[in-house]
Amino acid sequence: MTRALRVISSLALAAALACSAPPPSPSDVALAYFRDLGRDPIRTLPLLTRAFHAQHGLHVVSAAEARALREGPESAVPPEGGDDWSLDRRVLGWLEVQSRDGFRVLRDRLQVSLVDASASGDRAVVTLRVQPGRGSAFEQRFELVRDGGRWRIDGIEQRGVGSDNAFAAFVAHPTEAERRRLEHPGAVDP
Amino acid sequence: MSAVGAARGIRGWELAAGVLVACALAARLHNAVAFPPLRDFDGAPHALSVFALYEGHLPDPRTWAGFHPPLYYALGAAAWRLAPEAIPVHVLLRLLSALAGFGALALAWRTLARFAPREDAAVVAAVAACAPVFALATSMIGNETLCALFATVALSRLCAPPSNPRALGRHALGVGLLSGLAALSKSTGLAVIAASVAALAWRARAYGRPALRAALVAGGVAAVVCAPFYVWLLVETGSPRALVGGGRPADAAGSEMSAQLPGERHIADYLALPPAMLAAPVKDAPGMLRSVPGLLYASTWADGHGQFLPARVRTVLGAASASAVLGLLPTVLVTVGAIAIARRRRDYAWAEAPLLFGALLLAAFLVQTWVVPVYSAVKASYLLSALLPASICLAVGLERFGGRARTVLRAALLAIAAFDAGLTWYGWWS
Predict the structure, then answer these.
(1) Separation of CA B241 from chain center
(2) B81 contacts on A by Cβ (under 8 Å)
């Protein structure tokens, strides 16, 4: 019984220590995004708002919907890029894209450095410079909002993306629109 | 053989089996890290449920895995809160699966060693630890091994009831709590409650009314533990199908299952044994999508659903095929054991609760494959909670052989376990 109490008190202490850590700043959150992307996909979830998942547009389809899509354009599936997808579809899409072959390898080639960070009230902006293994560097601008007592990424914009760094930019911020564009023949090989 | 020689012999088998179990455990630790993130069976949907609890609310029951009871996800969320950030969350969740699975295995081994020869118990534990169905479940995110853990603890307790009828109440309290926790891990656990209550009530022959009271206590405690979740699930979804439902996005049109093959079941599906179950034990091989025993067998002794082993690699498919062929021996021994138990039930009265549970689970599984006529409903991991009854049958099957034959069989089973331990080490092919 004493041993059990000791274990329980140790766990409670560890939980208290974990909860008492200082809340991450907006730049901490933006850097954590890159640290966890592809390496620890589940840990990216608390960094993101619902609006972020609406923005990236990635989503899963059920087997029935996939079959309907194959059979013809008249399907019961909501239109691409529409706002009708349920949140779970989008979050599953976000997680699934990170489990794709090669995603982690491409992510590991990205070098990230902080350019600028500013906060005003419940909104913040963080800009990072992303240097791919091949191709030119680009900037990734994070918009963050304070949500439920912590900073979360609400949206991402990229600048300086061209044909030589398109795959790296997709890995840094996977979106459905870019996924479709890169699938086309002629997209630059990573 | 002298007593000293016999004791050495026992220790030798136990040592060999222990080494194999340790290798299996090492393989799971390796797999937890090496297996790519979220490639697990329904890995992302399970992750979504863990995230919901991490954020402090229950998963939406209309989402892919949201219908599952919350215990595994709650433990996963707690581990996420407490563990260092250096350990990826999917690795933590896999380690949780492995911990629960090996906990169940240790208990099954201990229980078996009390009633069967210790050498046989050790060999059976090694076979179970390395069998692909167990290896894959303990390498992946999922709630099956946690359910197997609570099922095995509850059923182990029922194998050794107190001799004093007055102690039955406390015994039933523990059994009820454990079977309730099994049902709070996965709906398969509801069969643990049914088997536990039935086994306690059946003891009324020997104990009289105290046994009936114990059955009521066990059922009541289990209901207190898990009923709030199931009542909430039924109210939220309005359908008892939600107990085994899910498997699609919340707003998906139509049923995910309606798109999967074969789409309808015939009696012949339960009798078909396609050669591919040995030659190419994957669902896409000829005849496998339709054959219930074929796919069940392939997902027991290989990776029938192709989630873990890359079947496109010829060496891997060859190794999976070899594992399926080797799996015939333990399968035959389990069958021999089950027949022997059915013929001499009185000799195995101590095992009536786990065996009843095993039969119930198998029946429920077959009904499910009929009601949900798709290949993804035919996974051997759904039967993982029957670890103890399957172990008992294998040990009894071994017992049917004596002398040199038994020694050869034990050695052959350990060799099969060693082969399977290698087969399920993720990435050996690269």
Answers:
(1) 22
(2) 15, 18
